[in-house]
Automatic annotation (TrEMBL):
It catalyses: ATP + protein L-histidine = ADP + protein N-phospho-L-histidine. Residues 558-777 form the Histidine kinase domain. The lineage of its organism: Bacteria, Pseudomonadati, Pseudomonadota, Alphaproteobacteria, Sphingomonadales. It is an enzyme of class 2 (transferase). This is histidine kinase.
């Protein structure tokens, strides 16, 4: 019994072991199946397509991810519900259902593209019979999201259309280009030419030209058309050259450009530059003719580039600059050229040549259109120098030798003054009549004798108009007709006449008429009532005038030469001591030298002021008429006087309005006028005083006022301050302002410009001097 139980137990044990083995194998297979299912599910999850099953009854089983992509909420059970939820049109759903029904019968696959309006996506649907174990009639559909592909396809299509349109336009542009264009393949053979190329090589068609290999230029070797294309390919950049070609039987110069392409091909074009070459040749000829013409000019001309180097000059410039052609051909810099001219004595003498040179260097950036100045050289030559700043930063310099003109003008002015002075100081009544009977010249005695107005005589009346007025002064009015006959016979008959006229006041005048070489007639009247007395008086007066003129001339000459010459020597030697030419000076000695220099400057200024006064009195003061920036002139004057004011613990303030603007006048004289006002204000304001300069303008004039808070000027002396050498008695200043030169000079300079000077002073409150200067030339 026990043995049987053992056998049965062993048998069950074997059966259990066998079942365990079978179960393990089945578990292993199940595990593999699950892994495969999971792998397949993972692949399905990562796949770009999503499945949906439609059974024979039309029921839908869609992948949840597909529903998410379609933006459908819930679980649609049919295609119609799916379409409604996804926004697929009803017609598209019906077409899909119809195709599915046909596919169930035929068992064939089909594809369809639909658009889900809800999500805005486009899907490609592939439908096929579902594999087993699906029931019969079940269809498997795969939905692929192709929205990005469709968008990219649309973008590519649009670009393709644009490219085709651009290519058509470019082709049309190339074909319509007025100059030859071509395309060479990698073998450098012509592959495309335009109509201009065909016309240039006298071909029938583009195909004919390409077939014949007709080239635009006939050069060989390095000058051939293919050689240029090869050079462009080798260099990897466009290759340009100028070569001649025969176009339409005419030799023309072409600018040929070959452009390498990334494909190994070469494109090219040619531009006719014959007109440019002709213009360049004509320009070169014109420039040469202008150079030849400039060499024949009497004025010297030179031009400097933006680097301030000489770029052009003519032969007269070389002569006036005193330089050799080799020196000028080296294109010296502007400063170096001035230094070379100075070595040759062709620049004005100046104590501070570097500063003088810097002022001329500033011409390059000057705002004036023209800068003019006169150079008086050491040998007496007088040159007119004109500088013209150029837009490119350069400078044009013109030098004109006016030595003879100045001498002739001076002689002419002297003769005119002598003639006017002579006429007015003669004891005869002088009148000159032109050949047409008009009064041409007369002296003051003529005006006084006949009691006529100068303003009316300046209209040059005819003798017929003068006769009725003269008749009123004569004892016998009929004698006036003798004067008319006298003028007529002298101008027309060229005869001398003489006689006497009796005036109504008892005076008797001897007259005579003399024909002049220019066709005019000189008529003189002499009062012979008391000829001896009158002749003696006139002789004494003439001698006194001559003596006064001689004294004045000697005074001016002595002031100019006798005072300036030693003053220049003193200043020069003092400057040498100051600069250490005699060795290092002690501080005390340096102070003495500085005092000498200050005194030299002061004395030089005094001499200039005295000379200016004598010149203005004699009518010899010349006013140069140029554009003057009054605002800048006032600022510079204030800046120059700041040190002098600071030495007396004074302050100078300026208030210059934007309306100040420009005037036409002599910048040097106007600056001196303002300097005189500022010096006077500094001298009389006292320590710690305050000086103010105001400037503004209107359409007609510029007004400049200088005010100080000094002691003022007594009322009784205010009318005298503009007289020469007048000074305020209670002024403590020992400067040149105390000599009373500043205000007289200021008034003369301003009045020479057509302006006026006014003074407003209150004792104890200060003084204000105002200048009014017209804007236009007077």
């Amino acid at each position: 019994m026990d043995g049987l139980l053992l056998i049965i137990a062993a048998l069950w044990m074997g059966i259990a072991a066998a079942l365990l083995v079978v179960a393990g194998r089945r578990m292993d297979r199940a595990r593999k199946t699950i892994d495969a299912a999971r792998s397949l599910a993972g692949m399905m999850g990562a796949a770009p397509v999503r499945p949906a099953m439609i059974d024979a009854d039309g029921k839908l089983d869609a992948d949840p991810e597909l529903l998410r992509q379609l933006a459908v909420s819930g679980r649609p059970s049919t295609l119609a519900e799916l379409g409604a939820g996804a926004g697929i049109s009803r017609d598209t759903v019906k077409a899909l259902e119809s195709r599915i029904a046909e596919a169930r019968l035929s068992g064939e696959r089909f594809s369809l593209q639909v658009e889900a309006e809800q999500s805005g996506k486009i899907f490609d649907i592939s439908v096929m019979p579902a594999p087993r174990p699906a029931a019969d009639g079940t269809m498997l559909s795969w939905w692929a999201d192709t929205s990005q592909q469709e968008e990219e396809r649309g973008r590519l299509g649009k670009r393709l259309d644009q490219t085709e349109s651009a290519l058509d336009s470019l082709t049309q542009l190339i074909e319509s280009a007025p100059f030859p264009m071509w395309y060479r393949g990698p073998d450098l053979a012509l592959g495309l030419v335009n109509a201009a190329f065909v016309a240039a090589v006298e071909g029938d068609t583009a195909a004919d030209v390409i077939a014949r290999g007709a080239e635009l230029i006939d050069g060989t070797g390095d000058e051939s058309a293919r050689a240029g294309a090869m050079t462009a390919l080798e260099n990897g950049k466009p290759y340009s050259r100028t070569q001649p070609a025969t176009i339409g039987g005419e030799r023309r110069m072409l600018r040929i450009v070959d452009v390498p392409l990334a494909t190994g091909a070469v494109a090219g074009f040619a531009i006719d530059v014959q007109d440019i070459e002709d213009a360049r040749y004509e320009l070169a000829q014109y420039i040469q003719s202008q150079r030849d013409l400039s060499d024949r000019m009497t004025a010297g001309a030179a031009q400097f580039d933006s680097d301030k180097r000489l770029s052009f000059y003519n032969q007269p410039f070389a002569v006036m600059a005193g330089l050799d052609v080799e020196e000028l051909d080296a294109k010296p810099e502007f400063d170096r050229l001035l230094e070379q001219m100075r070595d040759k004595g062709r620049t004005p003498e100046t104590r501070d040549f570097p500063a003088w040179k810097a002022e001329r260097r500033a011409w390059f950036t000057a705002t004036d259109e023209l800068i003019e100045e006169d150079w008086i050289l050491a040998n007496g030559d007088h040159q007119r120098v004109v500088g013209q700043p150029l837009p490119d930063g350069g400078l044009r310099l013109i030098i004109e030798d006016r030595t003879e003109q100045v001498r002739l003008a001076s002689a002419r002015d002297t003769l005119l003054r002598v003639r006017a002075a002579t006429f007015d100081n003669l004891f005869e009544v002088i009148s000159v009549f032109a050949s047409d009977g008009r009064l041409y010249l007369w002296n003051k005695l003529f005006t006084d004798l006949w009691e006529l107005e100068d303003s009316w005589l300046s209209e040059h009346p005819r003798i017929d108009e003068l006769v009725p007025l003269m008749a009123k002064k004569l004892k016998d009015p009929e004698d006036a007709t003798r004067i008319r006959e006298l003028v007529s016979s002298t101008t027309s008959g060229r005869k001398e006449n003489a006689g006497r006229l009796q005036f109504a006041d008892g005076r008797s005048f001897a007259y005579s008429s003399v024909p002049l070489p220019d066709g005019n007639a000189l008529v003189t009247l002499v009062d012979v009532t008391d000829s001896t007395r009158i002749q003696a008086a006139l002789r004494e007066r003439a001698e006194a005038l001559e003596e006064a003129d001689r004294v004045k001339t000697d005074f001016v000459a002595n002031m100019s030469y006798e005072l300036r010459t030693p003053l220049t020597s003193i200043g020069g030697f003092a400057e040498m001591l100051q600069q250490g030419y005699a060795g290092t000076l002690e501080d005390k000695a340096k102070g003495y030298v500085d005092a000498i220099m200050e005194s030299v400057e002061r004395l030089s200024r005094l001499i200039d002021n005295v000379l200016d006064l004598t010149r203005t009195e004699g009518g010899e003061l010349k006013i140069d008429r140029k554009r003057v920036d009054m605002a800048g002139l006032c600022r510079n004057a204030v800046a120059a006087m700041t040190v002098d004011a600071a030495a007396k613990d004074q302050s100078i303030e300026e208030e210059i309005a934007d309306s100040t603007g420009d005037v036409t006048g002599d910048a040097k004289r106007l600056r001196e006028a303002i300097d005189h006002l500022l010096r006077n204000a500094i001298a009389y304001a006292g320590p710690g005083g305050r000086i103010e300069l105001y400037a503004h303008g209107d359409e007609d004039a510029v007004t400049v006022s200088v005010a100080d808070d000094g002691p003022g000027i007594p009322v009784e002396e205010q009318e005298e301050v503009f007289n020469r050498f007048h000074k305020v008695h209670d002024a403590a200043s020992r400067s040149e302002t105390a000599l009373g030169l500043g205000l007289p000079l200021t008034r003369q300079f301003v009045e020479a410009h057509g302006g006026n000077v006014s003074l407003d002073s209150t004792p104890g409150r200060g003084t204000t001097v105002t200048l009014r200067i017209p804007r236009g030339a007077q």
